[in-house]
Structures are given as structure tokens and as C-alpha cells.
Amino acid sequence: MIRRRLGVGASVIDGSLVAGDVIVADGVIVEVGVAGSRPLGAIAVPGFVDVQINGFGGIDFSNTDLAGCRSASRDIARAGTTAVLATMPTTRADRYIPALAVLRDACTTRLPGARFLGVHLEGPFLSPARAGAHNPAWLRLPDDEVAASWLSTAPIAMMTLAPELPGALALTRLLRTRGVLVALGHTDATKHAAHAGFDAGATMVTHLWNAQRQPTSREPAVCGVGLVRRDVHVGVICDLVHVDADTVLLSHSAAGERFVAVTDAVWLAGLPDGTYSMGGRPLTKAAGAIRLADGTLVGGAGTLDEALRHLVGLGVPLLAALATITSAPRAVLGAHAAGCGRICVGDRADVVVLDEELRVRTVLVGGEALG
Predict the structure, then answer these.
(1) 3-class SS at 166?
(2) Is the dihedral of CA 70, 75, 77, 82 positive or negative?
(3) What whole-number distance in Å separates Cα of residue 344 and Cα of residue 28?
(4) Alpha carbon of 323 to those of 14, 97, 212, 368: distances in Å?
(5) Residue 257 burial (CB < 10 Å; 0-12/13-18/19+)?
(6) 168, 197 contact by CB (below 8 A)
């Protein structure tokens, strides 16, 4: 057994900073709080978990092969994210089965970086009034049989839908019986429709504030309902582009441990700024944002380590900010995230070493340092 010390002054364990080093062996964590390490400086934190990421480094999870998933897995992990839900936004009807078949293989294959915990289908059962960058021509009404065919093809862990659509509540209840988490998003839902969706079994809001009816004093809509319900987590894109800094802080103050930072990264994340094309539609990547010609945001361009630094820079305490990318997504995913988002003796050693500026110094995936 080869034992490896990480050379850190402390580690984050169960939401607390514990002095001492971490030792891993045979791919698992074997000791924490080991005395005799260097003074507090670099710290070990759990590998980050992203429940909404559509691709990275030129790889689109809706249109790739296993080799592409391998490449994206490695690139994603370099920024500290060691587990993801591979997200598929709305696509053409004939693309679902082949794309899901690839992601099924990625979920059951040992990848060189971030693990694929399952698939997050963001659509196509979304509101045309809140389509955002989703192609309205590809949206459709909820369909139990179609959804069942997808469930039989790949390990779908989460589905985002609009609860006000006909058949959405029945599909939500069906998905919950199959162990699939349901999130509300791209929705024009009123307060009453949002409550109905959560009462039917939905447990999360997808990218809070974006592509949903905006709240008012007398109509809190899905944003307000998601923030006040204690049984609902809220996903927030923390790039300070999709959501204003003050709104991020408001959301974190309201949601607390239910706040989940996500990237919503698309295939352009990790690529140079410039002009690109998506399905014949021109895209511009610049200043940390990806936009269609009309200015509509098209997913995110950032990483979770950047989100961490943004949150801390806004005044969120370090341990609370780390929770948004480790324990909070772990709580959302439940059994889907077994062994993820924590440092615990006996667990798989997916660990990130951060320096004093919260930049990623080392990433361990299954105890092996990422090359």
C-alpha cells in the first residue's frame, strides 16, 4: 500500500476546517487531521460537484462520442470538479437516443477526470415563453412514453421541466417513482403552479432567476417559491453574468444550505474568445459570457472554482461558499452522489488542494493526481 500525504495545513470535513494533513492510499482517504504538517495555508477540500454542465473544451454532451466525454472529463477536472451530471439541453427528437447511449457509456466507464454520475435532461418539456437559448421548434409537451424510452437508454438522474405544461405534474410523479430528480426551470409558472410542481415531487429550481417568470410583490413565481420552501434547493449560475452580485447574495441569504452553485457551462467554456456557430446560429464568446446575436445568454463559460472565488469575494464565508459546490449538490443528488462532495475516511479520494488565493493547486481523482 502506497501512502501519500497531500501536504496541506488543514482540510474541510463536514463543514468545518480541521487542522492537519490528509493521507490517501489505494484510491481512498485513510487518515485526516494528521499532525506534523505544514502551517495552515494550502487546504484540502472535497472535489466539486456540478449538477448542470452541458459540455466543456469544445465537447458538447448532446453531440459527442465516448472519446469526447473522456476529453471533457479531464478538462473539467483540472478546475477541481470531480463529479458532474452531464446535461443535455433541448435537442432534436432524433438526437436523444444516440446521445443518451453515449452518455450511458460515459457513466459506466472509468474516465480520466470528472466522473459522470448520471444525465440531466434540461428539456424538452419547457415553456416556449421562457425558452431562452433553447430552440423553440424542439420543445414539446410532457410525454410519459417518450420519457420512459429515454429512461431505458441511460441513467437519467435529473430532468428539468415546466410544471405549468399539460401532463407535467403526472410526469413529475412518474419520474420520482423511477428515482429521477425533478427540477423546475425554463418556466412561466405562477406561485400556484410552482407549488403544485414541488408538491408533485420536484426538489430543485434550475438556474434560479434565469429563463423563468420574474417575481413581483404579489406574484413570487418559481423564484420566490423556491427560495422560501425548505424542501427545495436552488441552482444559481455564479459567474456574475447570469445573475447580478446582489441577487446572488440575496439568494444565498434566503436559501442558505439549499443554495447550489452551477456553471451551466457549454462546449465553448474553456475555448478562446471569438465568434462560433451553434446549429447555424452565430455565437459570440467574450468577457466571460456566451451570447446569441440578439444578446441572449447561451449557458455559462465559467468553472466552479471561479464560482467559489466569486462567492467569497462577495463576502460569503469560505466554508459556506465551499458548501455550495460540495455538500449542497451532494444533498440534492442523494444516492446519485454516493462518495462525492466530502472528505471522509474510507471514501474515494476525490480531493482538491487549494492555495491561499483559492486557486486549484492539485486535483486527485480516485487518489491519483490529475496529470
Answers:
(1) coil
(2) negative
(3) 9
(4) 9, 34, 25, 24
(5) middle
(6) yes
According to the model, what pLDDT value does residue 307 have?
98
Measured in degrees and rounded to the nearest 5, phi and psi for residue 77 equal -70, -25
- In sequence order, the β-bridge partners of residue 21 are 34
CA nearest to 343, candidates 1, 53, 34? 34
Nearest to 177 by CA among 141, 148, 206, 197: 148
Q: Which residues, at least 6 apart from 177, have a Cβ–Cβ distance to it below 8 Å? A: none
- For the packed helices 144-151 and 96-107, what is the interaxial angle rounded to 10 degrees? 40
Single-letter residue type at 317: P
pLDDT reported for residue 47 = 98
Angstrom CA distances, 205 to 18, 20, 30, 243, 351, stand at: 32, 37, 36, 14, 28
Bond from prior residue into 282 cis (ω within 30 degrees of 0): no
The reported pTM is: 0.96
CA angle 86, 371, 264 (to 5 degrees): 25
Q: How many other C-beta atoms are found inside a 10 Å radius of the C-beta of residue 24?
A: 22
Measured between alpha carbons, how far is residue 308 from residues 181, 263, 321, 359 in Å? 25, 11, 6, 9
- What does the pLDDT read at residue 365? 96
What are the DSSP calls for 307-370, one per residue?
Answer: HHHHHHHTT--HHHHHHTTTHHHHHHHGGGGTT-S---TTSB--EEEE-TTS-EEEEEETTEEP
C-alpha cell at 33: 487531521
Closest among 158, 186, 188, 198 to 53, alpha carbons compared: 158
Band the pLDDT of 224: cuts 50, 70, 90. very high
181: nearest Cα among 114, 119, 127 = 119
Cα within 13 Å of Cα(6), Cβ side:
41
- In our burial notation (b when 16+ CB lie closer than 10 A, e otherwise), range 107-116 reads beeebebbbb
Residue pair 355/42 in contact (Cβ under 8 Å)? The answer is: yes
| Residue whose grid cell is 494550502 | 42
Mapping DSSP to helix (H, G, I), strand (E, B) and coil, where does residue 276 land?
A: strand
In tens, the pLDDT along 47-65 reads: 999 999 999 999 999 999 9
